[in-house]
Amino acid sequence: MSNDQNISITTRNIVTIAILASLGGSLSTFVGYLGNLINLSLGVPFGAGQFMAGLHVFWLILIRVIVAKRGTGTMGGLLKGLVELFTGSTHGLVIVAVSMVQGLLIDLGAEIVGTPHNSGNTKLVWWLSAGVAAASNVFVLQAFYFSGAHWILLTVIALLAFSSGVIFAGYFAWETLQFLKDSRVLSNSFSSTRPPTVSRTGVTYRNLPAIGLIIFITVGSLYYTVAVAQVFSDPYSCKVTGLVENPFTYSPQAFAGQEVTVQAELQGVNIHLDPANYTGILLSTILEAAIPMAETTGVRIVARDGYAILLDLDEVMIDTHLLLTEAEDGLWLIASNYDGALWIRMVTTLEIY
Amino acid sequence: MLHRLNPSLKLAGLIIITTAILIYPSWRFSGLLLLLTILGYKISNVPLDVSKKRIRFLVAFSALLFAFQVLMTANGTILFFIIPRYDFMGPFLPVTDFGVEKGFGMSLRFLLVVFSSMLFVSVTDPTLLAHSFTRLRIPYRYSFALVIALRFLPLFDMENKTVRMAQRSRGISISVRGMSRILRTIRYTFFPLLISALSRVDALSLSMDGRGFGHSRTRTYLRKSSWIALDSAVLVLLSTLLLTSILLTLGFLPQVSAII
Amino acid sequence: MLEIRDASFSYDNEKMILDSVDLQIRRGEITVITGPTGSGKSTLALILAGFIPRVIEGAFTGSLLIDGKNVEDDMISEIARKVALVQQDPESQISTLLVCDEVAFGPENYSVTPSEIQKRVEVSLNAVESSHLANRPTYALSGGEKQRVTIASMMAGKPDFLLLDEPSASLDPKGIQQLQKILLDFKDSGYGILCIEHRLATILPIADRVLRLSESRLSKWNDKTSSTRTTPVEHFRRLDSVDPLLIAKGVSYSYGTISAVRDVSLSVYPGEIIALMGDNGSGKSTLVSLLAGLLHSTNGATYIDGVSSIEMTAQDIAARIAVVFQNPNHQIFERTVQREQHLVFDVLDSLGEIPAERPDEVLLAAGLAELKERNPFSLSHGQKRRLNVSSVTVHEPLVYLFDEPFIGQDEIGRNFITQTIWKRGESGGAVILVTHDSTVATSLCSRIIFLERGSVLLDGPPMIVLNRLGEIGYGEYAVLGVMS
Predict the structure, then answer these.
(1) Residue B89 pairs with which residues in a beta bridge?
(2) If I label B237, which of A225, C44, C188, C353 is the partner at 20 to 30 A Cα–Cα?
(3) What ipTM does the predicted assembly reach?
(4) Least confident of A251-265, B154-168, C179-193, C217-231
(5) Do A11 and B214 touch (CB under 8 A)?
(6) Model confidence over A16-30: pLDDT tens digits?
């Protein structure tokens, strides 16, 4: 197809996108209902419903394949999300973000293969991107509501959603497309009535605010998605950053031979750990290696769950009982001289300020 | 009062509130914004009536979010253990003050998203919203898709009911036992509705073309929202909110972040 | 004058739809074109409105002239300023959420000033007697109201010519009378009007000239009323001594706050064929769903063959009842005609003895035997409707409930459906038929139930009910009874 097909979009295209997005939005209650039935039949409160996630992406795939023009996936996603927002979806604006990210991913997939959707290899890419789009909802929702979720849990649910995407927005969508072709409802008797032609740069320029808005929303919703990546990083490593000459990522192996062992006893309000021996690297040793700049006064210690404490840098540098040890779920800060609340599990960042 | 604001601005407001709470996840901040949202209902005279079923879902999901955060957070001052020490076993699953705080934060964030979205929907005329997008230089042919989609929504909801009724009249019932049953259930519902919906495409696009849709690059409007002084004031307020949340996250406002 | 000269058209370059057709539409005149289903009447309208060849592909030759000027090079939006086309299904032509927005849609696209648009909205709605609808949401309109709004939205563009495709299809007799009056007003104001009508009787009284399209050609229509009417046959007497097949006891139903059916009680006996009549929105379709046990009454109860419908499963209902809904697309589920016809056997386990060849026999009678392997959705409207009837009656359940089954049917279809209805009545079942057509009611049915705002207004033998209707202000049912 010629290139300018991508710029001009016919009334028929717009109507098709709107109608499919509307039907998809209307049926999302039905899809949710099916998800609940599956939850019920498996006896779990939630999660298995993700097995229906592909049925949301299904509509965006139909839109992108039937209209076959650049960006229609995103447009369809945005529309379907807005329709659900206006029907009073329980997730409000979040559903718009979820749906639009899905459309964007479908568009990306379509961009990789170009328009054809029916030959062996291209079909594979389409189906995979359908799977990825379906899985993306797990991460967007995670970003909004489930930050700190364990990566194993996330992976399992995302894989479930991914398979759902491949099955329903891939296999089933292609069956549907064939069915629609056989039913002759997609008549090809329409040529494209073009709107008044405008040059491509003109279009890009005039759309800048729209593009800006779209990028803003996308980047915003992707921000936390990407932030999840750190969960997948080595749990036994920790960033040393801030006002230092030599920022680095700490790992115990790099400091082999410098371990110390201390005996400490955790005295919390409601918890008491009997005195035990802890072996690890002193915090002062680690910070020393980063070379704190002059005039720095404190260190912020951040855990994976977002918990953070501030300690006085001078005190830290002379503390011979303050160390990072390796525990079953990551690096622990053993603060024998401090209150129980300052013992930290799963330390991920040391920031000097 | 919110009815009179520019629809695009209202959408921007919704996006900004959601973004702000996403980048600065403090339960006090969420709570404050939630209070402001409730105030929004009051000043625009929108009744805050939520169906029973809806309330049940809101409570259940908030509780789920709360429990999830509490269980996932190990740090902070431990308040108690869900499974106390028994003999040499345990204790397991500590509940910490930080976890409880995070749990509150998430639940409040969820409620904020739900209630601010509901408020937005009830004070926004979707047609005016679509038209106001042209102010953002989105061509009207594109933004009009929103009008079409919402116009057909009640029809599709009705057709959905009819199809389900037709299924019952043929003895077909919904079943999710096994993959083939699931696929059959979906086929029997999606296919009739898809055909019915797509068979309207030709008539609608002819009808629109036949009334000059896309005749020129711009068009006029019988009903269009304007930009009033109040809009500018609200825009300044929203920008401040966004900026504050960014500054708070970056730690530039230690005095303020100590409070919220 | 709107004119086409020597127009020929084919969608696929093989089958000629139109073959060198000439047609002139004059201002201040109502032209009517009739002809059998599928004869290309709608295609002709698409050519007159300029959509062929601009938007719709196909092999077109010939020319379109407006007031003597060839408009070959004009864009569709230019032609649309002069010629407006109201297509068949009003529902599909409404693009906005509010009636006033819908009427304003055209002028807005042509950048008319807001104050002028406001004026046009008022004038156009007034012209179709619908000023009161201006601020209503479009989805909440009745079929007749939707059509009037669609016409108003076309008139707001101030065209010179108005083309209407099957305008009476979804109207009740009252709506048809209103439409006739509106079209006459337009004619008097100098518009050129073309009506395409399958049911000629509905528009004949106001026509200035009538043409017939058949075999790709236009010719003058001559009034040799080809009577396809089924001759009334002796009706089965209902046997009051036997138990009724369907019973409704004080049933009511409402959608939200709108009440659709109010406190209806009735019994249907073996052998009865009943016409369920009433204006659009009087609750006919809802009552059918209630009787079929598909909706459950807010109070009262329905019984099917003696069993309360609330206690029946979907399978129980399907074994006893056959329902045909209005839109054929909503009740086709399978991927081939054959599988659709056999669907009921897959779903229902115990159907008793049904001869193996029965499904095919029914398909043959429906004129669908050769289409067995086709995707059912690719059939024509009339064929789909026949498939609906044949697939729900293949196991011969006790009661048939058909909602407007004759719309869009040609003679084969009418005969098949009539036969199906007759046979069921003859063999001790019962049929309820929703219809606006008093001819059908008198020739086929033994009883008319007439609904008014959700309640039974009249219930009795056809002639008595129709006469009574004439006396109490529903005369149009008697007058317009002679149709197709």
Answers:
(1) B86
(2) A225
(3) 0.92
(4) C217-231
(5) yes
(6) 999 999 999 999 999
